[in-house]
Amino acid sequence: MRFIAVFLAVLAFLAQPAAAASSPSLFNLEQQLDNLSRSGSGDVGIAALDLSNGESVSIRGNTPFPMASTMKVAVAALYLSQVDHGRRSLDDMIGKQSARHLIDRMMIYSDNHATDVLLQDLGGPSALDQWLRQHKLEGMRVDRNIAQLLRAKRDLWDRRDSSTPMAMVQLLSKLYKAELIKPESRNYLLDVMARCKTGKNRIRGLLPFGTPVEHKTGTLNGYASDVGFITLPDGRRIAVAIFARGGVDRPRTLAQSARAIYDGFKSVMTWPLRPALNP
């Protein structure tokens, strides 16, 4: 039965177009990303959205990929949304550590134990999944905590704990526009993501020195991802989600894709320029 399920998933993947319809001005970028996604012989999903004007591009943007540790963005968002409603505080002690310390450990160092402590305090995976549903974040689901995920037999085609690239970019967009959390919480989250210590060879890897990036990585055996925000020289912010499973040198594929996104969106000027929100 498991073989049949995997076989059907592969057929569905092969049947869909790699490049989704995107902004006409980004057609060349779409082709470049499509070529990059095929060159590593793996399965790569990409979505990018200009938060100032809504222009977007995606490659297999509606294909579910494992979230791995990128789901920690959602954990932080749910906790901060409850801070905004006065139900919690960043200074609350959860166990022997403050929520602020746990979020820092989770987002900066990708601490799995800190994640599960926070997630349990929030009501577990089902509470987070329900919150995503309430905010109409389709294409993203949370089924297990990190410990359960790591104990389970690995199946990179499993739809549990997965997100499509487009769904992840939608989450990032809603967070950035303060639709899920207040501007103060958004600014705090961006600051924490800017200090991420993992995956320096992924989204950040090939960008020009000094490019502002706020991001969160995810890693499993045979899988790598990176999601977050890239700021262009003119101030526009691009929400980005890049997932890669199988193939070879996944971090380099992520880095090359991020650089292509940076160059492609940079070449598309909007006039008059409408920069993204300035936190």
From TrEMBL:
Biological process according to GO: beta-lactam antibiotic catabolic process; response to antibiotic
Gene Ontology molecular function: beta-lactamase activity
Transmembrane is among the record's keywords: no
Catalysed reaction, written as an equation: a beta-lactam + H2O = a substituted beta-amino acid
EC number: 3.5.2.6
Cited Pfam families: Beta-lactamase2
Coiled coil (UniProt feature): none
Keywords for the protein's UniProt record, in alphabetical order: Antibiotic resistance, Hydrolase, Signal
Highest taxon listed in the record's lineage: Bacteria
Similarity-based family: Belongs to the class-A beta-lactamase family.
Protein's recorded name: Beta-lactamase
